[in-house]
Amino acid sequence: MKSRLFANLSPQEQEQFLQICKKEQIQKGAVIKKEAQKVEKAFFLIEGEVVVKKSSSQGEMEVATIKGDEDVIFSFTCMIDGGATLTTVQARSNCMLYSFTKKDFFGFCKQNPKIGIKLLQNALEIMAIFLRRSDEKIVQMYQTLEEVL
Questions:
Q1: pLDDT for res 142
Q2: 133 in helix, strand or coil?
């Protein structure tokens, strides 16, 4: 499985981690997570396609489409902090995904410290990339606002 979370892990180490994950079949049209709900697990999309939606003043709008061959983990921050999700994710086709909980993730890291350190380093890098991209979008929105005003 290709994922930035698994960078620097051997195939055997990846397989060890995947053993704590729950494999789920999702039917086309099913909502995997709903905006504003608490989500306590993270997901890897293995097969299929999902659409990411966000509420706006004009109603719900599609903001992204994710395919199973893309390197995307969704709800990772919600899994870490137990907070509410900012988007809705719905299956656009029949999908297969892996999910894992905070308890399972950190339990695995404690029981397998050499692999756990690699996973935690990779998770921090994923979150840093996300934060940097978010900061760039905020700067772009501010510049656009300045131009309008």
A1: 85
A2: helix
Q: 51-60, 81-90, 98-107, 136-145: lowest mean pLDDT where? A: 136-145
C-alpha 88/C-alpha 35 separation (Å) is 5
3-state secondary structure the chain: CCCHHHCCCCHHHHHHHHCCCEEEEECCCCEEECCCCECCEEEEEEECEEEEEEEECCEEEEEEEEECCCCCEECHHHHHHCCECCCEEEECCCEEEEEEEHHHHHHHHHHCHHHHHHHHHHHHHHHHHHHHHHHHHHHHHHHHHHHHC
Tell me the pLDDT band of 51, cut-offs 50, 70 and 90. Answer: very high
User: What is the predicted pLDDT for the residue at 68?
Assistant: 84
Report the alpha-carbon distance of residue 69 to residue 24 in Å, rounded.
16
Tokens found for residue 140 = 């772009």
**What are the boundaries of each domain within the chain?**
4-148
Domain 4-148, CATH among 3.30.530.20, 3.40.50.150, 2.60.120.10, 2.60.120.260: 2.60.120.10
Non-local (6+) Cβ contacts of 71 within 8 A are: 2, 3, 4
